Amino acid sequence: MNCREVEEQDVPERYALGRLTDSERDEFEQHYFECDSCFSQLQTALALQEELRHQPRVRTQAGGTSLRRMWFWAPASAALALFLVVGVWWYAGRKQQFAPQATSSTPVVKPETSGQLASSAAPSLEELARVQPPAYSPVVLRGAEDEAHESFRKAMQHYLKNDYTGAIPGLRAAVKANPDTASFHFYLGACYLLTNQSDWAIKSFRKTISLENSTYSGQAHFYLAKAYLQEKDVSAAERELQATVPLDGGNAAEAREILHQLRK
Amino acid sequence: MGGTGYNSACAGDKEAAGLPSDTNHLRNLVDHIRQGDAEAEAEVVRQFARRIFVMGFVRTRDREAARDLVQDVLMAVIGALRKGQLQDPERLAAFVHGTARNLINNQLRNAGRHPPLEPLTEDLPQDCIIEQLEHGERVRMVHQALEKLGEEDRKILRMTLVDGRKPGEIAAALGLAPDVVRTRKLRALKRVTDLIQKKLSRTGATLPHS
Q: For residues B128 and A64, what is the distance between their CA atoms, to the nearest angstrom?
């Protein structure tokens, strides 16, 4: 790979998005290990990616209409709606004055909303990142409970009361005592996710996946995608959602829907 | 294609690219390391630490894992150079990259076996703090450069680099032709790169390996 190919094929941005093939990735890495200029461009692309991720997003719709332009007209729309409501109220009042026997109720005129906004606005990343806590049913263990399971059980009592912050210390203790139990990592990740600690959630879910437990791996891909959506890392979220579909029957439908929304 | 490219400085030639491409220089560097020259080892660290970090971060999306990788790779590389295990000094960059790739693959296989339980900000080693400062400086310059771009150009960059959309998809979303999107994207990237280079040359500062 040479510099011209790097520029012409948009290699730095594709690399930053994880979209190069394995061989392209190796070739580009070998190149930037030797080329200061291409390495500098790559660093700039990564810094841009990070900065843009944290900037507020202005959604656009097809045809270039922006929400900002729509909100410019919102006060005028609101004034018109108010005029209509007042007008109808006055009219209804006059009608009642001259027809005291009438029992019809005042018709309610709903203010015009921006139909384009209401009907076709795509959900934001924040909305797609919203998550329900994964279900948990306490399991009764036969025989004596070890320290790790005791910590886990007590932590999950907080979890069942939706006290996810309160559950975290016990789950961390369970993980520390027994780092190879998938359920410990999974629910720790869930608590991090539900308390908006997405970076820690990512670590916990990746560990869950690495333990290759059939009960939790599929779900972990789904919630890992949610954590990436919280981090606004769309390409990573897409990857995990694609992994979810064949593995996690319970969340497959939502995963497909989110993928559909992300690709609009 | 290439009229609006921002890579005009790169000739694809090792000398222009910045690394010591002269065979004698590389041979001397490797020889000095074999003799235990700490300054020669420091030069290898300066040239490759940031590259290894970026490679590790892009592959794992984990800053802490990437920092660990830098330490592991440099230790392995310096150790091998001290023992004279690199036969062809011209292949130093390829050797470092290959070592990094192998260690990353090992790390991904053993992912999270010892997950960190302490908050990331506690007790960071000095080089991690320096890396954060250097990266932070570049992000700050990028932020300032982005403020000078128009809203639509920022939108194009965001849809490209964050949302991962292709020019055709961006064009459809913004009501522009795909060629226009591509041209504006390249010009916006060039503008950001030029603004950063201008800041660097004004302050006399250099970011590592740029």
A: 43
Instruction: Please name which of B145, B144, B143 lies closest in space to residue B191, comparing C-alpha atoms.
Output: B145
The pLDDT of residue A106: 44
- Residue B71, pLDDT score: 92
Contacts (Cβ under 8 Å, ≥6 apart) of A231: A53, A198, A199, A202
- Given a contact cutoff of 8 angstroms between Cβ atoms, the answer to whether B129 and B183 are in contact is no
User: Between residues A54 and A157, which one has the greater pLDDT?
Assistant: A157
Which residues between 55 and 84 in chain B have a beta carbon less than 8 angstroms from any beta carbon of chain A?
A: 55, 57-58, 61-62
| Owner of token pair 């279900």 | A135
User: Average pLDDT by consecutive 10-residue portion of chain B (210 residues)?
Assistant: 38 46 80 90 91 92 88 93 91 94 84 44 44 70 89 92 89 91 90 80 51
| pLDDT computed for residue A213 by the predictor | 78
Cβ–Cβ gap A39/B51 under 8 Å = yes
Calculate what percentage of chain A has a pLDDT beyond 70.
Answer: 72
pLDDT of A52 reads: 87
Q: Which residue has the tokens 């394995």?
A: A22
CA distance A3 to chain B (A): 5
Structure tokens at A67: 């929400």
Q: Could you report the per-residue pLDDT of A128-150, keeping only the tens digit for each? A: 888 888 888 776 555 667 888 88
B58, A46: Cβ pair inside 8 Å?
yes
Which residues is B18 bridged to in the sheet? Answer: A35
Chain A interface includes B91 (CB < 8 A): no
Contact residues on chain A for B11, CB-CB shorter than 8 A = 3
Which residue in A51, A64, A202 is closest to B175 by CB distance?
A64
**Do A219 and A186 touch, CB atoms closer than 8 A?**
yes
Residue B196 to residue A44, Cβ atoms within 8 A: yes
A159-175 pLDDT, tens digit each: 888 888 889 889 988 99
Q: What stretches of A118-252 adopt beta strand conformation (E)?
A: none
Rounded to whole angstroms, the Cα distance separating A135 from B190 reads 49
A15: chain B residues, CB-CB within 8 Å: 58
Of the candidates A144, A140, A143, A178, the residue with the CA atom closest to the CA atom of residue A156: A140
Of residues B109, B102, B116, the one with CA closest to residue B55: B102
